[in-house]
Amino acid sequence: MAFFLETLLGGLMAGMLYSLVALGFVLIFKASGVFNFAQGAMVLFAALAMARFAEWIPHWTGIDNPMLANVVAFVLAGVVMFLVAWLIERLVLRHLVNQEGTTLLMATLGITYFLEGLGQTIFGSDIYKIDIGMPKEPIFMLESLFPGGVLVNKEDVIAAAIAATLVTLLSVFFQKTSTGRALRAVADDHQAAQSIGIPLNRIWVIVWCVAGVVALVAGMIWGSKLGVQFSLATVALRALPVVILGGLTSVPGAIIGGLIIGVGEKLSEVYLGPFVGGGIEIWFAYVLALVFLLFRPQGLFGEKIIDRV
Amino acid sequence: MFYRENGQFKTTYRADQQIFPITQDRIAIALILAVAFLAVPMLASDYLFRAILIPFLIFSLAAIGVNILVGYCGQISLGSGAFMAVGAYGAYNFFVRIPGMPLIPSLILGGLCATFFGILFGLPSLRVKGLYLAVATLAAQFFADWMFLRIKWFTNDSPSGSVSVSNLQVFGLEVETPLSKYFLCLGILVVIGLLAKNLVRGAIGREWMAIRDMDVAAAVIGIRPMYAKLSAFAVSSFIIGVAGALWGFVYLGAWEPAAFSVDQSFRLLFMVIIGGMGSIMGSFFGAAFIVVLPIALNQALPLLGSLFGLEISTAGISHAELIIFGALIVWFLIVEPHGLAKLWSIGKQKLRLWPFPH
Amino acid sequence: MSQKQIGDVILDVNNISLRFGGVNALTDISFNVKEHEIRAIIGPNGAGKSSMLNCINGVYTPQDGSITFRGKTFSHMNSRQVAEMGVARTFQNLALFKGMSVIDNIMTGRNLKIKSNMFLQALRIGPAEKEETRHREYVEHIIDFLEIQAFRKTPVGQLPYGLQKRVDLGRALAMEPQVLLLDEPMAGMNVEEKQDMCRFVLDVNDEFGSTIVLIEHDMGVVMDISDRVVVLDYGKKIGDGTPEEVRSNEDVISAYLGTSH
Q: From the list A103, A278, A289, which residue is nearest B150 (CB)?
């Protein structure tokens, strides 16, 4: 039983990380109808930036305190992501405004490759560390209920807390602020939003900036846990089923979808895997998404997709 | 001046419907075939065969398959690598398990395995499209990755999922040298290419394009979306499966599942985007581009770098490849969504007028 | 004007009701269409005219009512079945296949008549080639009729709007329809183009013998060429009869001119 709980918790934590990436997908899709395949590359780019800046800042500015260096690195990386967002809007999105979804999807594929190459050229392609002082030792909980206790990673708990805060902030942003309202209007209908004076281009820059910050936070957490390396970019592919499950237009969907996938992957690997040869993690999420696509394409919380004649 | 159609009047519909209605085009294609079958074998080095020509032929074939699905029928697919894998492992199993199984039937049977796989994973296209369909095809990709890694039967119980083939023969002739491999691939490409061209200019091709352009209107005309989409998946995966089998048998000789990973899927999609969606000729352009680019970069970048006093490592070159690919994809999508094939036909239009300005 | 034989009822719409969520697009609509006639459906914008055609075509499924075609009654129509039964249509917003040429677009209309399977088509010899040529001849006949010979190889997306409308009509004609549903075929045209289109519609009715159901806003055209008229407003039928009868109908007049409700 303790083992089951551990697996469950491990799955929840992994799921939280997926959710962070999925959040980026949902944000951009909600606001512009574009599915940003490049979110994974953005996570990598942001993580690389932060890792390297944290290394270089002591040389540049003589700041010794590692915590301070990290904060400065975070801010700098954020600025870099804003720049990336602005460039993407300017050079790519603006020119593809009325194209159909598949074209935009493929354009973001192109951006993915571009960012992967550029990031590694600028920042290097070794494995880097992000050390933001996350506690690495595990703790044992619930020792009174289960002998030996249940193993939980403190790092994961803090990551989950950060993710939860981020989600709350974003939800408030979308629901309560006027910019958030404008974003929702744009997601609904570009032309209608334009006709009431919402500046489309600026909105898109804002959205991609927010997605960039989300990518940075995700990159920071993943990077702290696993180290910053190229495989981080494939994280987008892992998180894609999450938005299918949760619904492309739903922020809570991204969270819940991520948790379900995280738990599902771990549980299926442990309990189903041995019967079929193991290693089913690589397709479990996708096949689950496939099942959803056949019966409920809009996911758990998404809006129904209507095809107009 | 040279490229005028003046005086070339067609007197039958059949003449008007041919693949190359303009005489100059017919001459050009005859020349190209002559070069391919006669000149190249005499002049090309082993390296040229191995590094450029054979991959070009095999990828052209695969790109034709992908183009039929994505370019003509408008169904986005990120799972082409899986279809190649099924073709390769399918052909492998027939070749190795049935004693005396000749090569070409094995390749065809491998293609048929890919067809079944393609139809199965094409079923979601009846419910969803766009990004959602892309996710379904990714499911095919990852499932195939796992299948060939973990289910021992497919790989003849090899521990790591890697298999190899040897002793390839066609009608008693050994297929060992680069030259013989080249001819095998060229022959298969020409045959399947011709069949594919006939399909896309016939009724089924029009059905595919109708589904791509507006599937509701297509239904009203009486086109069954299910038949059109699944037939596109079937034909496409057959061709991609044969290409995958060729890739494994002829080019690699020995392979493991990673040879057909999701990167391969992306690469095929890029070939089709850059080469030109909805164009058989575009598939050739795209394949040539993607095959030649890394090699060209490998030679050119260090040279460029030394001009500026920079040393560019192999890692640097592969990063540059990513940057250039990405930038090109975006550039083509913005500037010329119909790819190199469209640029080519615009060039031909200008050639018709040459040397006159208008 | 040649003498036309108007036959019996070929299409019967019985108590059709169509709802989208809370919106009643059509409420209890009934009318019939006689063979060889030109039947116009008119009404203000949003009256439900296109929705009516969509129901006949199988694009929408009505919640209530049925449609009888040549004696067979259906509670909902399946697009392919409808096409096979000989009903073709054009679209208000031009549902042309933008990526294909004019010839290819019209050839898609022949799709139901093409019998050779995929394998024969791949080989393109013998029966497949002959069949393709035969259908090409028929399509050329239509192209001559619509006077668009010069544009046959042009991608449809590059043609001006008026010509695109003709291609839309051509594609519908390629199906050799018994009933032709035309959804605002003259929308967006100037006077000359409208005259051309009227001529085509009348010729189709005359030469090809098709029954025509026509949605149109231009009253002059409607009064001129139609045999009978149905008037819809807010999803309900408010008039049914010859053009003269409908023109003097009180409800129709107030629907168009507007009265205080």
A: A278
Give the amino acid at B42. Answer: M
Residue B4: strand, helix, or coil: coil
Q: Say if C59 is an interface residue toward chain B (CB within 8 Å).
A: yes
Residues B187, B56 contacting (CB under 8 angstroms): no
| Neighbour subunits, B (≥3 Cβ pairs < 8 A) | A, C
Q: Is residue C226 part of a domain?
A: yes
First to last CA, chain A: 54
Nearest alpha carbon to residue A235 among A88, A82, A42: A42
Asked if residues B330 and A111 have their Cβ atoms less than 8 Å apart, the reply is yes
ipTM of the complex: 0.85
**Do both C125 and C182 map to the same domain?**
no
The 3-state secondary structure of B81-134 reads HHHHHHHHHHHHHHHHHCCCCCHHHHHHHHHHHHHHHHHHHHHHHHCCCCHHHH
C170/C186 same-domain check: no
User: Structurally, how many domains does chain C consist of?
Assistant: 2
Tell me which residue in B139, B315, B326 faces A114 most closely, judged by beta carbons: B326
Is C223 strand, coil or helix? Answer: helix
Per-residue pLDDT tens for A31-49? 777 888 888 888 888 888 8
Q: How far is CA C205 from the centre of its chain?
A: 12
Does B160 lie at the interface with A, CB-CB under 8 angstroms? no
Per the CB < 8 Å rule, is A283 touching B145? yes
Q: Is A116 on the interface with B (CB under 8 A)?
A: yes
Nearest-CB residue to B222 (from C83, C128, C140) = C83
Biggest alpha carbon–alpha carbon distance for chain C: 69
Q: What is the pTM of this model?
A: 0.88
How far is residue B199's CA from residue B195's CA, in Å, rounded to a whole number? 6
Q: Which of B137, B141, B322, B332 to mutate to test the interface with A (most CBs of A within 10 A)?
A: B322
Quick: pLDDT tens for C7-54.
888 888 889 899 887 888 899 999 999 999 999 999 888 788 888 988
Q: What would you measure as the largest C-alpha separation in chain A, in angstroms?
A: 65
CB proximity A306 to C under 8 Å: no
Query: Does an H or E element contain B347, and which?
Result: helix B339-353
**Phi–psi pair at C236, nearest 5 degrees:** -115, 155
Q: Give the one of C59, C80, C104 whose C-beta lies nearest to B206's C-beta.
A: C104
The answer to whether A242 and A11 have CB atoms below 8 angstroms apart is no
Domain of C50 in residue numbering reads as 1-86+177-261
Answer with the one of C137, C155, C174 that is the final residue of a domain: C174
CB neighbour list of residue A126: distance below 8 Å, 6 or more residues apart: A229
CA C223 to chain centre: 18
User: Could you tell me if residue C125 is inside a domain?
Assistant: yes
Using a CB–CB cutoff of 8 Å, tell me whether C125 touches chain B.
no
Q: Which of C174, C192, C224 is the last residue of a domain?
A: C174
pLDDT at residue A147 greater than cutoff 70: no
In chain B, what residues touch A283 (CB-CB under 8 Å)? 139, 142-143, 145-146
Judge: A91–B330 Cβ closer than 8 Å, yes or no: yes
Q: How many helices (H) and strands (E) does chain C have?
A: 10, 10
A89-123: pLDDT as tens digits? 888 888 887 677 778 888 888 999 999 889 888 88
**B126, B132, B272, B338: best mutation site toward chain A, by most A Cβ within 10 Å?**
B132
Q: Distance between terminal CA atoms of chain B?
A: 12
